[in-house]
C-alpha cells in the first residue's frame, strides 16, 4: 500500500520555512491573503464570502490534501496536493491507484518575490516523490498567470499543453490554459545533477 500524508513526519523544514498539514483553525489566516485582489485574481474562488470559504477550506476531503507554509510561525501560503489515480486499463487499474498528484499553491502578497514559493514547492516535490512515492505530479494555470507557470518551469516541470481559450475566468472571459508535469525519475535525475554541480 502506498504511503499517505499520515505516514509523513510533519512538520517538515526547509532553510527558511515550515510546511505542515493544514488544520481547520488555519482558515482565517489563509482567507486573509486569499481574498487579496492580486491573489484571488487567479484562484478558483475569490474568498470574499467568509462562510463559503470556511465551508470549502474545512471540508475534510479538501483539508486532507492541504498543507500550509509558515515563516517564523506565520502562515504565508498554502499548497494543495490532490493525490489520485492515473488512467489505466481495467486489468492493471490496481497498479494505477494513488500514483499521481495534482498540485496547486498560493502565497500571500507580502511573501512574494523572495523565493519562498520555489523553496516551498521544491520541498513539496520531495515529499511527493520520496515520502509519498508518487510517480507523477502535474499542475495547471491560466496562461496569463505568468508567475505561476514560470515557477513550474523553475521547478523543472515540463509544459505538456497550452490550450486555447478553454478556461473561463470570472472577469477576463475565456483564457488560454497551461498544464505542466514532472515524473519521479525526471525529478531524481535533476536532483542528482544539482548535487553533482555543487
Topology:
Blueprint: E1 12-13, E2 18-21, H1 27-34, H2 37-40, H3 50-58, H4 60-63, E3 66-71, E4 74-84, E5 100-107, H5 116-131, E6 136-142, H6 146-154, E7 158-169, E8 173-183, H7 184-197
Parallel strand pairs: 5-6
Antiparallel strand pairs: 1-2, 2-3, 3-4, 4-5, 6-8, 7-8
Describe this structure in words.
The structure is a single chain. The chain is an alpha+beta fold and 198 residues long. The protein has a single domain, classed as Aminopeptidase (3-Layer(aba) Sandwich), CATH 3.40.630. Helices cover 32% and strands 31% of the residues. It has 7 helices and 8 strands. The chain has an 8-stranded mixed beta sheet with strand order 1-2-3-4-5-6-8-7, sandwiched between helices. It is globular and about 45 Å long.
Low-confidence stretches: none
Number of contiguous helices: 7
Q: Average the pLDDT over all residues and give the rounded result.
A: 95
Radius of gyration: 17 Å
Tell me the β content. 25-35%
The CATH top-level class label:
Alpha Beta
The largest sheet, given as strand count, sense and whether it forms a barrel, is: 8 strands, mixed
What's the shape? globular
Highlighted features:
single chain, alpha+beta, Aminopeptidase, 8 strands, 7 helices
State the gist of this model:
This protein is α+β, with helices and mostly antiparallel strands and 198 residues long. Helices cover 32% and strands 31% of the residues.
Amino acid at each position: 500500500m502506498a504511503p499517505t500524508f499520515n505516514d509523513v513526519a510533519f512538520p517538515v523544514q526547509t532553510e527558511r520555512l515550515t510546511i505542515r498539514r493544514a488544520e481547520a483553525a488555519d482558515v482565517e489566516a489563509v482567507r486573509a491573503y486569499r481574498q487579496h485582489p492580486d491573489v484571488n485574481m487567479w484562484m478558483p474562488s475569490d474568498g470574499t464570502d467568509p462562510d463559503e470559504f470556511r465551508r470549502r477550506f474545512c471540508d475534510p476531503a479538501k483539508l486532507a490534501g492541504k498543507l500550509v507554509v509558515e515563516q517564523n510561525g506565520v502562515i504565508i501560503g498554502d499548497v494543495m496536493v490532490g493525490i489520485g489515480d492515473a488512467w489505466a486499463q481495467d486489468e492493471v487499474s490496481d497498479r494505477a491507484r494513488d500514483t499521481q498528484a495534482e498540485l496547486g499553491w498560493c502565497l500571500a502578497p507580502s511573501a512574494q518575490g523572495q523565493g519562498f514559493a520555489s523553496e516551498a514547492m521544491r520541498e513539496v516535490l520531495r515529499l511527493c516523490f520520496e515520502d509519498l512515492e508518487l510517480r507523477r505530479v502535474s499542475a495547471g494555470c491560466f496562461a496569463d498567470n505568468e508567475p505561476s507557470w514560470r515557477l513550474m518551469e523553475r521547478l523543472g516541470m515540463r509544459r505538456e499543453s497550452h490550450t486555447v481559450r478553454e478556461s473561463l475566468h470570472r472577469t477576463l472571459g475565456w483564457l488560454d490554459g497551461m498544464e505542466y508535469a514532472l515524473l519521479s525519475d525526471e525529478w531524481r535525475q535533476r536532483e542528482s545533477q544539482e548535487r553533482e554541480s555543487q
